Amino acid sequence: MSLALYLGYRVKYIVASHLQTEVPNLFNHFLRCFLIGGPKQAQRLRLLDEKDPPRVDLFITCAGEDIETIVNTAEAACALDYPAHCFRVIVLDDAGLKGLSQKIAKSKESRRNVYYTARKKPLDHHFKAGNLNHGYKYVESLCGGPAPFMAALDADMIPDPKWLRALTPYLLKDENLALAQPPQVRNSNYPLHLVTS
């Protein structure tokens, strides 16, 4: 008898939890069937070749990933199709990896807009959010202070060369907009993760 009750409750709650996740999706698909003219396409904006586009601080958060992966991401970020004097790439090392600061220093010989910083984590360090806050405090000490815009990449995200030109126009167009997040896309032409928008 106990086994029958257990199985009954188990089936009931599995079905109920499945319905909670699937019913909203089914309802959304049902509504799309009756959408006249199809779904609206978002306006695609691009920042054209301006000599002085808005300044951006681009943070690369890392916490113990492979050093070569982090360096590849930093190199790709430095090579964005954006004037080098208008953006800085800051590698935020939350693990204090041995050798990473030297690799970034070597990159700085050819790319002046790349920086490295590592924080001493307090007990309540807030993980990635704390690392980003550390990065913001770090750029306050750099020449020119913090840029008006901040972008963030994970250590294994290789950005599309026009990434900043695709994101900044939305933030410039709407002063009430505080965040623009592009989708992550895998591209088989690249050996690493590729982020495009």
What does this molecule look like?
The chain is an alpha/beta fold and about 200 residues long. It has five helices and seven strands; from the N terminus they run H-E-H-E-H-E-H-E-E-H-E-E. Strands 3-2-1-4 form a four-stranded parallel β-sheet, with helices on both faces. The longest helix is centred in the first third of the chain and has 32 residues, at about 1-35. About 20% of the residues are buried. This is Glycosyltransferase 2-like domain-containing protein. Pfam families: Glycos_transf_2 (PF00535). It is a multi-pass membrane protein. One of its GO terms (molecular function) is glycosyltransferase activity.
How are the SSEs placed, and which strands pair?
Elements: H1 2-33, E1 56-62, H2 67-78, E2 87-93, H3 100-108, E3 114-118, H4 127-140, E4 149-154, E5 157-159, H5 163-173, E6 184-185, E7 193-195
Parallel strand pairs: 1-2, 1-4, 2-3, 5-7
Antiparallel strand pairs: 6-7
Helix pairs in contact: 2-3
Domain Glycosyltransferase 2-like: 60-192
Organism: Lepraria neglecta
Keywords: Glycosyltransferase, Membrane, Transferase, Transmembrane, Transmembrane helix
| Total helical segments | 5
**How much strand?**
15-25%
Q: Biggest β-sheet, characterized?
A: 4 strands, parallel
Strand/helix succession: HEHEHEHEEHEE
Shape: extended
Based on CA atoms alone, the radius of gyration comes out at 22 Å
- The portion of residues assigned to helices is 25-40%
**What structural category arises from helix and sheet content?**
alpha/beta
Overall strand count: 7
End-to-end separation: 57 Å
Poorly predicted parts = 190-197
Average pLDDT level: 82
Major sheet: arrangement of strands = 3-2-1-4
Protein name: Glycosyltransferase 2-like domain-containing protein
GO molecular function: glycosyltransferase activity
Pfam family, one: Glycos_transf_2
Membrane topology: Multi-pass membrane protein
